[in-house]
């Protein structure tokens, strides 16, 4: 491994990442001059009293499971094979590696593999560009055989970190750009620019990789996002770094003030009102240690659950091989083969010149995992957390480590697993309650201004909760207005006036999960259980109506496309037709929906064509290894020709098949003043809940808490 190259990259990336990284607006700050040495972007976060997890040396890692990510050694082997592969070998410097990850074995091979068996052939899959031509290649790491795989008809691969870090600097060599900045009254040393994906809006944007650059003033604050140089947009060729066009529609719009925009504790602690008192610290202590184990780096076991977990440059967290021990029989039962965040779609609702293109695909354009930041102990994750790293590659294929990208911890927040107390009229002294303890796998991606926290939460009763929380900083628009009374009647600001000269623009967040369900095996079906009003027959009952559940099994993909509706309630079951309980019910899991904001864009609006996977909240497709990314393999500047919506339009059979469940969490965000200058976290989730999967309540066996098991910790005086 070339440590000098790695060191240079990490120094560049780490310092830049914390302040600028990609964006929702996925952007970036330049990381070399024009920032002066006194630039606010060179600040260091105040020291925090945290127990830093020990760093791990991944140089000697060896894969022990068919789904283990590529090791550093394997990445170096794959890189060497690529560089010697024709035509790349004739000009290795012309090769850009956009991604390099495990080419997973066939599902049947993985499911039949047992610990102790030799591993299936280890392969890598590389997405590259060579002299502007894209390649998707499967690389056998043992035989060194390289096989070319199909390439999408439109779009480009996920941007590399080098793309995102170099593009914002290109305009600074353009005299017209510099003159525009100066004319807006901003010092060049205070300028912070970010790279913004531009979607697809017609043939004029085809034939080359383009990106848009927008800029901010960092004078007087670390929160430069609150100080946009409104209306200034640079269209840039990402490969040649040529400035194609400069548009400035913001003359007369002032740069918002930096007053009260800084959110760092070192600044805000001195401004706290005397009457405000912070809550006392809370810490979860485990005298007997954590209940979960992590073996071979990726295999997790806890309270009957077991699964494989790994970091992925595009998806973030991937959970695989999920199973649970049946408390009645002691046998392990399959639940899900593989689950992950497939895509994030974030359209802004401002159709004006400097905003219409802001319709981000954070996984496919920027890499959700690439944007994951090291988690902060005691703040992002509690004291009892275990941390996992990610190993990714730079554009030249060299490996680097993203430390502490995922944490695992047990959570107890006073919730109850089950309880019952008998009332006095029964004369029975029964008071039974059980605490609810869960296992959480967490990551956080800092997508420039926005922060996404993704939790996979596992409960002892067999429930799986996928939770997404949003925090960070709004993407705001500069305006000449300082008060709502200044806004002319009938004018659409496309958002909310948050502070003087600052508008928070309305936008959506859609997070689509791909869940390859294997409930008691891969042959599953999907049923829609519709709840309808039913009238009683005349004279049948004093009641005139009741609620009736009617089960319909979806035969094809279109029958399983679901738009959630409050007044047309349904349950959605993934079940195994060949496995039943002792009384005859098919074993299954059901989707408990939440976060159900739906896209309200026109279906033919260019952003919605690309984000058509949000047209429904639930889709069911037959398993296909190549259908993993809801927005397509190549999302950047794609036209929407390779999306979940296109695949599902084939209307393939899905009954009693190996099927995949897709679920989209949605948020409508109308900004409010409480979101300024940084947003309190808002979250939503959905559940996969057992439905006739167990013979009875699976957590009857849980013991109650006892005082003796929970010693009270007191502070010990030190000499």
UniProtKB/TrEMBL annotation:
Modified residues (2',4',5'-topaquinone): 450
Residues of the Copper amine oxidase N2-terminal domain: 65-148
Requisite cofactors: Cu cation
UniProt modification remark: Topaquinone (TPQ) is generated by copper-dependent autoxidation of a specific tyrosyl residue.
Free-text remark on how the cofactor is bound: Contains 1 topaquinone per subunit.
Positions of the Copper amine oxidase catalytic domain: 284-700
Top class in the EC scheme: oxidoreductase
Domain spans labelled Copper amine oxidase N3-terminal: 157-256
Keywords on record: Copper, Disulfide bond, Metal-binding, Oxidoreductase, TPQ
InterPro entries, A to Z: Cu_Am_Ox_Cu-bd, Cu_amine_oxidase, Cu_amine_oxidase_C, Cu_amine_oxidase_C_sf, Cu_amine_oxidase_N-reg, Cu_amine_oxidase_N2, Cu_amine_oxidase_N3
EC id: 1.4.3.-
Stated family: Belongs to the copper/topaquinone oxidase family.
Protein name, as recorded: Amine oxidase
């Amino acid at each position: 491994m070339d440590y000098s190259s790695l060191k240079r990259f990490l120094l560049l990336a780490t310092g830049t990442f914390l302040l600028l990284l990609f964006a929702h607006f996925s952007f970036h700050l330049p990381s070399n001059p024009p920032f002066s040495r006194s630039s606010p972007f060179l600040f260091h976060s105040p020291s925090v009293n945290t127990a830093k997890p020990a760093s791990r040396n991944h140089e000697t890692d060896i894969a022990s499971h068919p789904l283990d990510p590529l090791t550093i050694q394997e990445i170096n082997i794959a890189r060497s094979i690529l560089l010697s592969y024709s035509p790349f070998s004739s000009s290795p410097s012309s090769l850009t590696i956009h991604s390099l990850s495990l080419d997973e074995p066939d599902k049947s091979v993985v499911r039949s593999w047992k610990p102790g068996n030799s591993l299936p052939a280890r392969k890598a899959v590389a997405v590259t560009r060579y002299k502007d031509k894209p390649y998707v290649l499967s690389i056998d790491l043992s035989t060194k055989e390289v096989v070319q795989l199909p390439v999408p008809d439109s779009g480009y691969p996920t941007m590399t970190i080098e793309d995102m870090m170099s593009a914002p600097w290109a305009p600074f060599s353009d005299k017209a750009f510099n003159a525009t900045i100066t004319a807006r009254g901003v010092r060049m040393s205070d300028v912070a620019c970010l790279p913004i994906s531009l979607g697809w809006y017609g043939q004029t944007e085809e034939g080359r990789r383009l990106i848009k650059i927008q800029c901010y003033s960092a004078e007087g604050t670390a929160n430069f996002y609150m100080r946009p140089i409104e209306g200034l947009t640079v269209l840039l060729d990402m490969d040649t770094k040529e400035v194609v066009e400069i548009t400035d529609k913001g003359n007369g719009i002032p740069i918002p003030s930096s007053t009260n925009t800084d959110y760092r504790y070192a600044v805000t602690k001195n401004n706290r009102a005397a009457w405000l008192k912070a809550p006392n610290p809370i810490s979860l202590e485990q005298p007997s240690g954590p209940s979960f184990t992590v073996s071979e780096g990726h295999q997790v076991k806890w309270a009957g659950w077991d699964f494989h977990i790994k970091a992925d440059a595009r998806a973030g967290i991937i959970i695989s091989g999920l199973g649970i021990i049946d408390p009645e029989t002691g046998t392990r039962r399959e639940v899900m083969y593989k689950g992950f965040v497939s895509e994030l779609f974030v359209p802004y609702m401002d159709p004006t010149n400097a905003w219409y293109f802001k319709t981000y695909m954070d996984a496919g354009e920027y890499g959700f995992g690439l944007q994951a930041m090291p988690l902060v102990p005691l703040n992002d994750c509690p004291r009892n957390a275990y941390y996992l790293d990610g190993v990714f590659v730079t554009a030249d294929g060299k490996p680097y480590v993203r430390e502490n990208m995922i944490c695992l911890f047990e959570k107890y927040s006073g919730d109850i697993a089950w309880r019952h107390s008998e009332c006095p009229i029964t004369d029975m002294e029964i008071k039974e309650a059980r605490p609810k303890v869960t296992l959480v796998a967490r990551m956080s991606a800092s997508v420039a201004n926005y922060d996404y926290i993704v939790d996979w939460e596992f409960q002892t009763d067999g429930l799986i909760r996928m939770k997404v929380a949003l925090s960070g900083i709004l993407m705001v628009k500069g305006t000449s207005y300082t008060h709502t009374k200044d806004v002319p009647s009938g004018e659409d600001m496309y958002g909310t006036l948050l502070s003087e000269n600052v508008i928070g623009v309305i936008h959506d967040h859609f997070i689509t999960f791909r869940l390859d369900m294997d409930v008691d095996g891969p042959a599953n079906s999907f049923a829609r259980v519709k709840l309808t009003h039913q009238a009683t027959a005349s004279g049948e009952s004093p009641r005139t109506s009741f609620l009736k559940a009617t089960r319909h099994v979806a035969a094809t993909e279109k029958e399983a496309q679901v738009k959630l509706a409050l007044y047309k309630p349904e349950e959605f079951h993934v079940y195994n037709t060949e496995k039943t309980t002792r009384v005859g019910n098919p074993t299954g899991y059901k989707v408990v929906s939440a976060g159900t904001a739906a896209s309200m864009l026109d279906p033919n609006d260019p952003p919605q064509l690309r984000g058509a996977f949000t047209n429904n909240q639930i889709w069911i497709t037959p398993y296909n290894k190549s259908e993993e990314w809801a927005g397509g393999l190549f999302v950047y500047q794609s036209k929407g020709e390779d999306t979940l919506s296109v695949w599902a339009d084939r209307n393939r059979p899905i009954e009693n098949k190996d099927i995949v469940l897709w679920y989209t969490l949605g948020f409508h965000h109308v900004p409010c003043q409480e979101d300024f200058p940084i947003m309190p976290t808002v979250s939503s989730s959905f559940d996969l809940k057992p439905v006739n999967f167990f013979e009875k309540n699976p957590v009857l066996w849980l013991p109650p808490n006892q005082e003796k098991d929970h010693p009270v910790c007191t502070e010990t005086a030190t000499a």
